[in-house]
UniProtKB/TrEMBL annotation, chain A:
UniProt domain Response regulatory: residue ranges: 6-121
Organism: Luteimonas wenzhouensis
Pfam families recorded: Response_reg
4-aspartylphosphate: residues carrying this PTM: 56
Presence of the UniProt keyword Cell wall biogenesis/degradation in the record: no
Keywords associated with the record: Phosphoprotein
InterPro entries, per database record: CheY-like_superfamily (IPR011006), Sig_transdc_resp-reg_receiver (IPR001789), ST_Response_Regulator (IPR052048)
Protein name per the record: Response regulator
Keyword Phosphoprotein set for record: yes
One annotated GO biological process: phosphorelay signal transduction system
TrEMBL record, chain B:
Gene Ontology biological-process annotations: chemotaxis
Keyword Protease found: no
Superkingdom, taxonomy of origin: Bacteria
Keywords noted in UniProt: Chemotaxis
Annotated source species: Luteimonas wenzhouensis
Protein's name according to its UniProt entry: Chemotaxis protein CheX
InterPro entries noted in UniProt: CheC-like_sf (IPR028976), T2SS_E_N_sf (IPR037257)
Length: 122, 291
């Protein structure tokens, strides 16, 4: 692992990716790639092999659950943290059962994000 | 009648020109530094630290200084000195217009008195409209939330101006709303024109106008609604329902459709230094429950 953990940021909102990327960089992570849908998420994961994936549940084409399944199928050791909207508890539980390491709720609290991502790396 | 900022009031009365107002707003912004900017300017915080506190303010309803103290980035004496310097440096728009020669002090005094009367009238009209509306209590609480949240999120003040009817909403084509499902469902949204959407996006994301395209502006409007929704659920909706679930931001429903049911929805025009925008609140019918 490099000194700065690498992150693949997956969310269909470009604005959220910009906000989160700034927060991640300031928290000491390196954003090595961004994806706007689940298909791109898998492609980017294969190409970049990041230390962490921050994965939105609701995305076009191939949603977060499908992307999680495909990423873990490709690399069972992938560290994926789910990004969810308020109240998506059953979806979160399903993702955790599938192998996601943890989850974060929007809007993103930068301190919570750093804490959760560091725990996921441990 | 809608409540107006002094600059807008003077512009509409033909007392000042648009270039004069823009120059004054720019000069006022340069003198009225945010606490984080002041701390950076004085070398007490670096830019990354100030940004981090600002980011926390988007999800926590706390003042910049309180977070800085908690993080140990400032001590109380430093914070007190910063607050004092901020107060001392603060300039009102009228003062700046006088300094720039756009208006003489005597005329400003007359206009301030007229503006005060105008504001009070607009305020009482707005209060009456909101109080008599079936969703008035909800609107009052979310307006207060916007007034508190937007300066922290966007670095710009906002104030409620008036209640709008559905036919008046066609001039704000950019919309984003989030539906919160649960026993007390709520639609919460914002609508504005494209110029305002771009200005809001640039403020939210810290971008230069040239770096913000229309799609990003709409996207950022959705993120702003998401943040607003998060606060509204915590502070406005009853906490007896742990099953709240927010759907992703929706840009397809026009403001007039969101506010079509005059009993279950309300649209409030908010003025800000970044442009006007409309707060949209609607109470969809709750899901049917078994008898």
């Amino acid at each position: 692992m490099t000194a700065r953990p690498t992150v693949l940021l997956c969310d269909d909102s470009r604005a959220l990716r910009m906000l989160a990327a700034g927060q991640l960089e300031e928290a000491g992570f390196e954003v090595v790639g961004e994806a706007g849908n689940g298909v791109q998420a898998l492609e980017q994961y294969r190409a970049l092999r990041p230390d962490l994936v921050l994965l939105d549940l609701v995305m076009p084409e191939c949603d977060g659950r499908q992307a999680l399944s495909r990423i873990l199928e490709h690399d069972p050791r992938a560290r994926v943290v789910i990004l969810s909207s308020l109240g998506a508890q059953s979806d979160i539980e399903q993702c955790l059962r599938m192998g996601a390491r943890s989850y974060l709720q929007k809007p993103i609290d930068p301190d919570a994000m750093e804490r959760v991502l560091r725990q996921a790396l441990a | 009648m809608a409540a107006k900022f002094l600059g807008q009031f003077l512009l509409e009365r033909g007392v000042i020109t648009a270039p004069q107002l823009l120059a004054a707003i720019q000069a006022q912004r340069a003198s009225n530094l945010l606490l984080g900017e002041l701390a950076v300017q004085r070398g007490l915080l670096d830019e990354a630290q100030a940004r981090r506190i600002n980011q926390r303010q988007r999800v926590e309803d706390r003042q910049f200084g309180d977070i800085a103290l908690e993080l140990g980035l400032l001590d109380q004496a430093q914070l007190d000195a910063l607050l004092e310097a901020q107060r001392a440096g603060r300039k009102r728009i009228g003062e700046v217009l006088v300094e720039q020669g756009a208006i003489d002090p005597g005329r400003l005094e007359q206009e301030l008195a007229l503006h005060q009367v105008d504001r009070e009238h607009a305020r009482s009209t707005l209060d009456r409209l909101v109080a008599s509306h079936p969703q008035g209590d909800l609107a009052t609480r979310v307006i207060a939330l916007c007034t508190r949240l937007f300066p922290r999120m966007l670095g710009a003040q906002c104030q409620a101006a008036t209640v709008l009817s559905p036919p008046q909403l066609g001039m704000w084509p950019c919309t984003a709303h989030v539906r919160v499902e649960g026993a007390h469902p709520l639609d919460i949204g914002l609508a504005c024109d494209l110029d305002s959407a771009r200005a809001l996006a640039c403020a939210l994301l810290g971008l230069a106008p040239a770096d913000c395209d229309d799609a990003l502006a709409l996207d950022a409007l959705g993120e702003m609604v998401n943040v607003l929704m998060g606060y509204a659920v915590r502070e406005v909706l009853p906490d007896d329902d742990a099953s709240y679930r927010a759907l992703p931001p929706d840009h397809a429903v026009p403001a007039s459709a969101l506010a079509a049911d005059r009993k279950r929805s309300i649209a409030v025009l908010l003025g800000s230094q970044l442009g006007d925008f409309v707060l949209l609140l609607a109470r969809p019918q709750p899901p049917c429950t078994a008898p």
